[in-house]
């Protein structure tokens, strides 16, 4: 009986609230009172979600940061390779630009593996030898001019005596006047021009080129530029100092020339990947 009475009263109150809004104020007061309790009750869950989300974000940020650092490192490494490739391309273009002017020699590209600047012995070691048909007395040049000549070979390497070596001599001529002389090394990154009489029309800045006399060096290649002229006492010849035009200590890629038929003949090694890397 009590249950029935309570049920009827509940139905009556619900109907009254629905149609007459009689319980609106009481419900509003009740919700206002309960709301802080609900907030306090939800704090542990919110704290848990905040903590786990924060740590997840930190881990994600760390992972992304590590990935960015790795990508940056790879990018810098590739940039270094790209810069190196640009330099190699410039060197090869310069060499091939020189090669395009050659019409009486066959040639191949070689890499400098060692440079000796000892005053008593100035030479280069190249990575081409007998297996690549490199022989003694072949001329070695870079993109600017003559560097020296092959003096010894092994199956896989060769030694180039530089024009600055004290034992090296090359017949040259003054390009402007055609006057001939002998250019000798001093062992100190310079050369001396001999047998030029005092009455010669020679000037500082004159370019010396190979004369071709003797048949060892091909004619017409730049060798050195005159940097100093002295007229000493009873010596019938001038004391002339000249600086090589080739980058003897800096060239990394060089060309090995050999006498050939009177047309441009690029050696097959010139196009091999191992020669242009």
Mean pLDDT: 78
Instruction: Write down the CATH class of the largest domain.
Output: Mainly Beta
- Percent strand equals 25-35%
What structural category do the secondary elements indicate?
Answer: alpha+beta
**CATH third-tier fold name of the largest domain:** Thrombin, subunit H
Report the count of strand segments. 13
Which blocks of ≥5 consecutive residues have pLDDT under 50?
Answer: 260-277
Provide a count of the helices: 3
CATH homologous superfamily of the largest domain - what is it? Rod shape-determining protein MreC, domain 1
List the secondary-structure elements in sequence, H or E: HHEEEEEEEEEEEEEH
Q: What is the total domain count?
A: 2
Helix fraction, binned, reads: 25-40%
Observed structural traits:
single chain; 277 residues; alpha+beta; Thrombin, subunit H; six-stranded antiparallel β-barrel; 36% helix; MreC; cell shape; Cell/Rod_1; MreC_beta-barrel_core
Please give the structural blueprint:
Layout: H1 2-20, H2 24-99, E1 105-118, E2 121-126, E3 139-141, E4 146-153, E5 158-162, E6 169-174, E7 180-185, E8 191-194, E9 207-210, E10 222-230, E11 239-244, E12 253-259, E13 265-266, H3 273-276
Parallel strand pairs: 1-13
Antiparallel strand pairs: 1-2, 1-12, 2-5, 3-4, 3-12, 4-5, 6-7, 6-9, 7-8, 8-11, 9-10, 10-11
Written account of the structure:
InterPro entries: Cell/Rod_1 (IPR042177), Cell/Rod_MreC_2 (IPR042175), MreC (IPR007221), MreC_beta-barrel_core (IPR055342). It holds the Pfam family MreC. Belongs to the MreC family. By secondary structure, this protein is an alpha+beta fold. It folds into two domains: about 1-80, no CATH class; about 100-275, Rod shape-determining protein MreC, domain 1 (Thrombin, subunit H, Beta Barrel). About 35% of the residues lie in helices and about 30% in strands. The chain has three helices and 13 strands; from the N terminus they run H-H-E-E-E-E-E-E-E-E-E-E-E-E-E-H. It has helices spanning about 1-20, 25-100, 275, and strands at about 105-120, 120-125, 140, 145-155, 160, 170-175, 180-185, 190-195, 205-210, 220-230, 240-245, 255-260, 265. The chain has a six-stranded antiparallel beta barrel. Strands 6-7-8-11-10-9 form a six-stranded antiparallel barrel.
